[in-house]
Protein 1
Amino acid sequence: MPASTAVVWFRRDLRVHDHPALHTAVAEYERVVPVFVLDRRLATGRYASPARTAFMLACVEELRETLRGLGGDLVVRDGEAVEELTALVQETGAEAVLWASDVGPYALSRDKAVIAALKELDVAARPQPGNFCADVSKPRTGQGRPYTVFTPFWRTHAKLERRPVHRAPSSVPALPSSVRVGKLPTLADLGLQDDVPEPVTPPGEAAARERFADFLSGAVVQYEARHNDLTGGTSVLSPHVRWGTLSVREMEQRALDHGGDGAAAFARQLVWRDFYAHVLLLHPDNTQNAFQERFQALEWSDDEAGFAAWKEGRTGFPLVDAGMRQLARTGWMHNRARMVTGSFLTKDLHLDWREGERWFAHKLLDGEPLQNNGNWQWVASTGVDPAPYFRRMFNPTTQAKKFDPDGEYIRRWVPELADVPPKRIHEPWTMSDEEQRAAGCVIGEDYPEPIVDHKAERLRAMERYRAVAPDA
Ligand SMILES: Cc1cc2nc3c(=O)[nH]c(=O)nc-3n(C[C@H](O)[C@H](O)[C@H](O)COP(=O)(O)OP(=O)(O)OC[C@H]3O[C@@H](n4cnc5c(N)ncnc54)[C@H](O)[C@@H]3O)c2cc1C
């Protein structure tokens, strides 16, 4: 009687701890064949990101080492999921394929094709949980509709069933000897060149677990009070959440077990991620269109010079520039800065939120359609969790004064402003000639004048939004 065999298909869940598909396969099958299929359509398509791909490849490499340490291995294939998985199943005689289910439109169509192909071969397709705190397809309002507002979603989500958190397996069966293990392509093989010089966190599960443990034993206590501070306060775990080197279900459980207001606020913040996954699952058209239909008619500018200044962090607004430069250098940006830079793009420069979404997707190590789209539509006031558009027009100067009062964040990312006196750091254009000379920063030469008049552009944005939503 041949040994029972299961394939475990790793995608963006690059870990061995709390991995339901791996856990189930190890418990129920004699042979386990972990595989990662490099999907070139994702790596080089619309949202291609050299830095994020480099991060992913390093996580896959580490996962392979970890599985080897446990006695197993990771097969790597470079090609279409359907073809590679059906070939592997036939090569190994596997009777089942297990993976962590996902909810984005691309993942859903790919999974559908894989399920159909496996059915043809009489192989069981066994999607498992693993990518979210709870089952994001379940929540419905009292009227039986999907949620579009966060707080009631969060209340319902809190009552959803939770699966147990699994330990890493103590061992993984060796691969059948006939299986070709395969080589992971390099970034250069994919025709990509990394352009983020100082990634905000090292890749891999070990680094993720260490950072999370440090956060739980330290900064989490202050999370509620400090998460908006631009120089700290948050976990900076999002690249790991994105690639699943940490399980959000485990993060949630450990935060709740930790207790206290800070940890409770952190656990609540994780639910935003489940919320946006719920929204995109039930409204897949959001990837192209405004969720609120009336905002499809909004007119957008095609100001290429403004867009270039925004991307390069030379708008003349210190907080906007600091955020955009932090993104370019590290592949990450603080959430408050994401809101301010997003508002600046859509409501000061009047550029389409989809342009901003695409640039973030290109640069962010944590970039993913579910979260990027939901948050961009939130900032542009076109999405779910609506508030009147005039409430989400962030003033980049007052935001900086509030969340970076000493200008530490600005000085860190905009070195031209390092010696600007504290009382001028948020409005360097108000420096006298003498102050500019003393600070070594001549406005218009060393650092740009503001490229727009925020007050005037705010009024223009109000008109644009009012034109399509007179009653909002
Ligand atoms: C315009 C814009 C675009 C964004 N694009 C992305 C994106 O592509 N990918 C992404 O993961 N986040 C995105 N965010 C959300 C948020 O900015 C980041 O998740 C957060 O800054 C990550 O930092 P952290 O790990 O220190 O967060 P923490 O505050 O420590 O939060 C812990 C975790 O909760 C989740 N989380 C927190 N806030 C949000 C949120 N608003 N939406 C969804 N999940 C959240 C993240 O997984 C995060 O790692 C975007 C926000 C804005 C305003």
Protein 2
Amino acid sequence: MTDALQRPRPETGADTVRILVCASCRAVGGEPDSARPGAILAAALGAALAEGDNTDIAVETVECLSVCKRPCTVALTGAGRWTYIYGDLDPDAGAATLLTFARQYRETTDGIVPWRERAEAIRKGVVARIPPLPLARTP
Ligand code: FES
């Protein structure tokens, strides 16, 4: 287990947009002991969150999002919003792109950012989207 996985969960409010980063994926072709790409991305996100308008955006590390062959893998979620899972994010350059997308996501009520407004890495990296919970029941 890495240090990133041992961090306590940040305090989050009901409107907080949460970026969950898998810090367990191994780099494709990387050495077993090399830094995990997700840990690098999470650290970059943490540093970026300390600057600018990032109210109600939090980053957390998790152990696995079941997208293990596509590091970096992340989930973006918020109360009442669709949850998105992404893969193939660059550990070094992905933080700025992801944080921009998290701000766009935060400005929505349902989590759906128009496709044309999403960065290319976000468009290409999408793995899944999950409806807001609890699901509305049909009669
Ligand atoms: S180990 Fe990262 S998604 Fe499974």
